Structure prediction request, 661 residues.
Amino acid sequence: MADKMLFRVDCDGEDLWNLYLNTIPSEINPVFREKRVFDCRTCHNFFRHAANMVAIDENTYELTTLFDCEPHDDMKGVFKALREHIKMHEIVDVFIGTQYYTIGYEFDRVQLEDGSIIRFPHFYIDLPRKHFGNEIDVAEARTNRTVLESSSNEISLEAIDTVLELIAANSLYRGTEWEGILEEFKKHLIKVKSVDEKDLNRFYWIQSIKLGPIISRIKNKSIGALLVDISSGMPLDAAVEKYEKITASTNYKRPKPIFTKAMLEKAEKKIDELGFTDSLPRRFAVMEDLSVRDVLFANRDVTPQLQDSESMFDRLREFTKNMAKNFDRAQDIPVNDFIENILPNAQEVELYLNYDLESNFVSLIAPINKDAPSMFKWDNLFSWAYKNNIADSMMKQRVKAMGGDVNVDLRFSIQWNDHYEWDKNDLDAHCTEPDGHEIYYEDKESKRTGGWLDVDIIDPKKDKPAVENIRYKDKSKMIPGDYKFRVHQYTYRGGDRGFKAEIEFNGRIYNFKYPFKLRHKEYIDVATVNLDENGNFTIKSHLKEQVSNISEWGVNYNTFIPVSLICFSPNHWGDNAVGNKHLFFMLKDCVNEDRVNPWFNEFLTEKLMEHKKVMEALGSVAKVEESPNQLSGVGFSLTKRKKVTLKVKTENIKRVFNVVI
Prediction:
C-alpha cells in the first residue's frame, strides 16, 4: 500500500475498533487483569488513526485495506469482517500522517508476579515520508478533488479543442502559457468518459493528486472561466472578450480574428452550398464595371467607358436648355438639391480636397468573377471600403474613447504617436483666448468661457495614439474675438513625426498636419478661430504654407481634384435600399494605397450570418487585387453632417458650391 496513494473511507475508527473487539473469538481473548487480552490502549489508538486507511488500484479502482494481509488462522474471520466493512464505504479524504512517522508500537513487555515477562504485539505501521504532511495539505487535497470533478462536468472537450485552436493561431492573449495544461486536462476528460460511474469518486481522488492543483482547479483560473463560458454556449467572441478583460493589458490588441478550424470548415461548406465560392475573389472596381443607370455623374472623358453609356449624352442634352446661370459666388446648397438641380447640367466637377476629408477616402470593390451570385444584402456584386475601414474622424473617436467631449460648439484636438515608431514626446494643446487667458495643462478650465482641456496625455503608450482635447461646449458663453490654438513640445523624447490636429465647428472638421520634428519647448501655431459678435465662427490656418505638399492616395490636399464619377453606394443602386446611403466622389488619379477589406459582415446576406466570425476573418485576410484606373475617391454617409466644396462647370459657366451633406 505504501507505494500507492493512500486515502480514508467514511467509516469511523472507533466503529472499526468495536467491530474488531466484538469479532475476535472469546476463547483467544480472555480477560487479562481488568480487560480482555486484545483490548489495549495502543491498538485502540492505532485504529482511531489508521484503520480506515485504503489504497486504490488505478486500473480496477478496487480498494486495498490494512486487513487484506494474511493473518494468523485465529484472526482470519476478524480481518475478513474488517475489510468487508471498510470496502462498503467510500473515500472521503486523502490519508496524510500529521504527527509521527510511525503509527502505533510494535510490542510491549509486561512482567508478571512470578517475574516472567510476556511480549504483547500491537498494530503499527512505518509511514513513508511521502505520505506525511499537515492539516493544510489535507484541506487542499480535498479542494483539488472537488474542483476537479466540477471542472470535468462543466468543461467540454469541444471547448478545449476550440481554445487550443485559438492558441495555435495566436488569437488568444497569453494563450501559449496554458497550452500544456490544456493538453493534460484534455487527456483527463477523455479518460473520464471510460470510467464507470460507480468508480468516478475514486477516479477523481487519484486524478486530483496526479494532476496537481493547477490542472485540478482549472475551472477557477482565467482560462477555466473561458472554457466554462464556451461550454455553456456563450458566443466565442463574447467569451474571449470577457477573458481578455480579466487578463489583457489596456494596450493589448488582438493579433487575429477569433475563429476555429471547425468554424472555418462549416462556413466553407455553407459558402459552397450557397454558390458563393466564386463571389469571394475581389478587386478594385473600374469605370467599365458600372452601368450608367447606377451613376449620378460621369466626366465626359470617362463616360464612354460606362456600360449602357449611349443614353448618357441624351440625358445630358435634355438639361442643356435649362442650365443655371449668373452664379457669381459660392453658396451653400443641400446635397439633394445639388443632385437634382445642379448635377444633371454638369459637364465637369472638381472637389476641393480639404484636410477634413482625410477619413473619407473610399474605394469601390468589384468581383473578379462577374457571373458570380451576390453574397450581399443587395442584388449587385459591389462593395466599398473607407480608409482604415471607417467613415468618420479617427481622432474624434479616440478623443471620445478617452472621455473627451466631442458634442460641442468648438473643438481643438491633437494627435501624435500614431506611426510605427514609439513617439514618447509630451505634446500639449494650448488655446490663448481673446482676453489673454491661456488654457493648457496647468490651467485646464476657463470659468469665463467654458473652455476646458478635458483630455491630457503626459506619457504616450506604445502602439496607442495619444490625443489631447480642448473644447468649448456652448459658444453663447464664449467671448467674441480670436482663439489662437497651438501645440507645445513640453518634453522632447525622440519622436520626430510631428502631429495632426483637428478644429471642428458648425459641423465641419478642419484637419491639419505638421509632419516635422518639434524641438524641446517649441510652440507651433496651428490656427486662429474668430468668433464675431453675431456668434459666427471663421478660421485662419497658420500651417498651410508648411504642409501644402501633403497628399493622400496620390492626390494633393488644398487643391481642386477632377471628379471622374459620382454615385451612391451599391446598397442603393437600382431598386435597392438597404441600410445607410453613402455618396461617392471618385477622383481622377486617386489610387488606394492601403490594405482593403473586400467586404464587411454588415454587407453580407443573412444566409451567412451564422458564420460571421469566419466571414469577418476571411474579409480581414483576403486580398483585393489591383486594377488599373481604379474607382477611389472620397465618400460621405448621408447620416453624418459634412460639407464639401465642389467646382461645377456647365456649358457656359463655372460655379463653386458648398454642398451640405
Confidence is low (pLDDT under 50) at residues 309-328. The CA atoms of residues 87 and 296 lie 89 Å apart. The first helix runs from residue 13 to 23.
